[in-house]
Amino acid sequence: MSKVEEFEELRPLLFSIAYRILGSVSEAEDAVQETWLRFDGSSTRPTSTKAFLSAAVTRISIDVLRSARVRREEYVGPWFPEPLLNDPYQDPARSVELADSVSMAALLLLERLSPLERAVFLLREVFAFGFDEVASAVGRSEAACRQLLVRARRHMEAGRPRFAADRQERQELAERFFDALKNGDVGGLRNLLAADVQLVGDGGGKAPQLARAVMGAENVARLLGTVYPWLVRIDVSFEPHEVNGQPGAVFRDRDGKVLHTMVLDVLGGQIQTIRSVTNPDKLGHLGPVADAWAVQRELKQARRQPH
């Protein structure tokens, strides 16, 4: 097998590691490309190509994350990961771990960890690497990696919900939610939302976004149920789609350009959190991006006109 063939076979795994460390599709793709350049420039073939490439992409991603964290501290409003519609890496034996670890909620929990803790946790818990491989990837002893994993597990378990919804339940709830949204059914929306539901948006200061999180079933249902029928009038549409392994949707303007994504966190048979990403810098990998400011102006104009 040629170098190119070996690399392409492992590309989905490398991207999945990098994305979970970085929470960014574009940065993960850059890390994978840099890994290829190192592999291609190496004069010797490693004993294990998978171990070599996994270690390389992990180290590159850790370095990128360290500098990214400084930028995230100055970010305007809440920071969310770039939405991922399809995870290229599939492993039937690890399907639950892979799906859980790519959710927005899990990626935001991972933000609490140091870059090293994050890498160790992902390689060991999600991708089931041996401690020798983890140690080699992060450049620490196995004993140090075990300590890092203990700390990482403690942080992750403290922030995790106790009762996660099963896939079927999530899907059925999401279908009812998006039907109610389409129909502007405020009461229907309210019935699906947890009493302390939060609606939060990430515009990064580059797109219209909520000044603060909208809290409570009544407020969230009224906002969504009132605004969306007006968006329909100016030809905004949406297509339900898994986003980061959770039920969600991609919203588009009348030209089919991506306006924003929405993802639902379901817990205890109700929707707990609704996260929307409108920052255009985080949507480019999904296709041409809409001018959200222009859509907002059109919406305001439509609402001023008599009907």
Automatic annotation (TrEMBL):
Kindly provide the name given to this protein in its UniProt entry: DNA-directed RNA polymerase sigma-70 factor
How this chain assembles, per its entry, is:
Interacts transiently with the RNA polymerase catalytic core formed by RpoA, RpoB, RpoC and RpoZ (2 alpha, 1 beta, 1 beta' and 1 omega subunit) to form the RNA polymerase holoenzyme that can initiate transcription.
Residues in RNA polymerase sigma factor 70 region 4 type domain copies: 105-156
Q: Native species of this protein?
A: Streptomyces hiroshimensis
Q: Which GO terms describe its cellular component?
A: DNA-directed RNA polymerase complex
InterPro entries xrefs: ECF_Sigma-70_Domain, NTF2-like_dom_sf, RNA_pol_sigma-70_dom, RNA_pol_sigma-70_ECF, RNA_pol_sigma70_r2, RNA_pol_sigma70_r4_t2, RNA_pol_sigma_r2, RNA_pol_sigma_r3/r4-like
The UniProt similarity line reads: Belongs to the sigma-70 factor family. ECF subfamily.
Q: Which UniProt keywords apply?
A: DNA-directed RNA polymerase, Sigma factor, Transcription, Transcription regulation
Limits of the RNA polymerase sigma-70 region domain: 7-69
